[in-house]
Amino acid sequence: MAELLPALRGLPPAYLVGGAVRDMLRGAESVDLDIAVEGDAVAVARTLAERLGGEAREHERFGTATVRAGGVTADLATTRRERYERPGALPVVEPAPLADDLVRRDFTINAMAVGLSEDDVGELHDPHGGRTDLESGVVRVLHERSFIDDPTRLLRAVRYEARLGMRMDARTEELARTAAADGALETVSGPRIRDELMDLLRELEAPSALEHARELEIDSALHPSLAAEPELAAAAALGAAETGADRGLAALATLVARAPDELEPWVESLALARAERDAVMAAARHAPGLVRSLQGEVPDSVVHTLLRGEPPETLAVALALGAPGGPIHRYLADLRGVRLEVTGDDLLAAGIPPSPAVGRALEETLRRKLDGEVGGRDEELALAIEVARREEGG
Ligand code: CTP
Question: Which of 24, 26, 81, 106 is the best mutation target for the ligand 1 pocket, counting ligand atoms within 8 Å of the beta carbon and taking the most?
């Protein structure tokens, strides 16, 4: 602010808005600085960048810009009014005064602004009682149609409740329950669901958000086969910490694991990055089976075969579902790094002709090495040659 405020002098009125104000009032650090400008935000961004010796990146489609200068990163947008032509669609926007920009927002705690310009510096603009709601821990919508206009707010509401240790007021909760039951979420594109759902699932307090989502039947409103299991998501978060899995993807897999076939098209519709989608589906499909197949005395070579090629999310969800930790930890600490000292070239040099038998011989040798039956390069080579000859012969 010490840098930003002088640089805003003489420019159209600017305000800190949204999460930054909420977090500042809570005494918490805010990651994003969102600045609303009553005027041309892109032009203000250019001037700011110039004055601060930084740069402005313009996002033409949205008439917004990001300024980076020294330690400051701020997103600038023109204050605007929004109109929803269809429930769930992106709104039609037009420039409007600050009051309109605040009234279009999701919850009172996110509908406050702090002046950054001239006489208004430090002034709190709080027309909807956001500060009181923040202090008394209430997540409250600004109007009756809020969840219908933008059903992603259903996911945001339970996320804020969990993250901030707050609770919806009775009316907001009733509106949420009704919007979910009336199919509001069906009007929203997969990618918009993805963005809000992944934000929710990556929260430290995601299990508590899922618990309320389940109670409000937001989970089954996303897809009839989808069932939030808060305890399982909490266990998957622990599993993710143990296995290096992505906590959000592991949690998503727990939502899908009870009915992966029915839910695969829904996962597709989220349009995750391919590797993320594959990790979620692998975890959802394979983790339940691992709970059974890793029980009892399982040779290391079998553990290796079962877990090799699985993303860490599969291991995290398997642990969450109750798979024994021993073999999974052994795999992560040890087995996955085991390599043969001999290679295919060594076998060719020993006179084995190139054929698929070479690969199979190396596989077999690796299995025997994992089970502690061979050690050292000479023994590996002797065994691999023996297996290759036998395979060839067979
Ligand atoms: N907003 C909204 N409705 C949405 C998404 C956003 O009204 N569906 C408004 C809120 O005022 C919110 C602001 O846009 O505070 C910025 O959105 P976002 O970056 O998603 O939220 P933050 O509060 O900044 O960040 P976070 O929730 O991650 O703390």
Answer: 106
Name the pTM for this structure: 0.93
- CATH 1.10.150.130 correct for 138-222: no
What phi and psi, each to the nearest 5 degrees, are found at residue 143?
-155, 165
Identical fold, 1-136 and 138-222: no
User: 1-136 architecture in CATH?
Assistant: 2-Layer Sandwich (3.30)
- Return the residue whose CA atom lies nearest to atom 24 of ligand 1: 19
Q: pLDDT tens across 249-303, in order?
A: 999 999 999 999 999 999 999 999 999 999 999 999 999 999 999 999 999 999 9
Q: Which long-range contacts (CB under 8 A, 24 or more apart) does 46-52 make?
A: 47/11, 48/4, 48/7, 48/8, 48/11, 48/74, 48/76, 51/7, 52/3, 52/4, 52/7
Indicate which residue's Cα is closest to atom 18 of ligand 1. Answer: 19
Residue 19 CA: nearest ligand 1 atom is 23
Phi-psi region of 369 (alpha: psi -120 to 50; beta: other; left: phi over 0): alpha
